[in-house]
User: What shape does this take?
Amino acid sequence: VEKTGKLTDAMRLVAAAKVRRAQDGVKKSRPFSEELTSMIKGIVKKLKGSGMEAELPMLRVPEKVSQVGILMVTSNRGLCGGYNAFIVKKAKARIQTLNDQGIVPKLIVIGNKGKMALTQRMYDVNFNYTGTFFDFPDTLKANLVSNIGDAVRNLFLSGEVDKVEVVSAKFFNLVKNEPTIRTMLPLTPTGIEDPGDETFTLTSEDGKLKVEKEKVKSTKAKEIENDVIFDQTPDVILNSMLPLYLNSQLLSILFDSQASELSSRMTAMKAAT
Assistant: This one.
């Protein structure tokens, strides 16, 4: 029993170290995301009233939603309490709601636990699994986020779906995270960042781990002078920037999911110890 206790306590400490890594990843990715958001807002503001922003494929809102895509974000491993079970339950409830409206959603899955749940826990709801699956590695890299972004974007731009939602965990603190549903596409041209956006820092006090959170202020639109001449038309520039923005949002969601998984594992291992 003592050896098992030492093992579970070691797993708790390893999870804590990985939470710090996720925290560092958020900090490093934020400057690029903020600058990109500011520039996109500036160009959209300049285009406002021209009607051109409505012609951008990633911003186009359909008159009626008849097909929906869902990106479900779970972990690769277990031993993290009810983390994956709650996400699967949330996704299943959303699919059932869509089924009641006569919609059979198309699924893209991240994480082995989500893939296993398709046959083990979601057999009684109707969905079309696209066959697109991504591992959720310990270290998040740009090429993984880019590949996920391409899959989500292609599903939307091909016309297969009118809307893409993501079901993932929202990190609050070391003992609380909640499964949430968020629309990824179409992007909203105004107020494009998450209204609940915030950063977290893992610290220690009196030998105990705690999380300090800070609300992130809304990014202001970059001021673009009237005499600025674009080398390419603004819609072409936006069409090249919006995929980067989508990827930055996906990276933020994955870091949030990673922190939620690890904090759930810390809690589970502490209870096991």
About this structure: Residues 191-195 have pLDDT under 50 and may be disordered. Strands lie at 68-73, 106-110, 128-134, 163-173, 176-185, 198-205, 208-215.
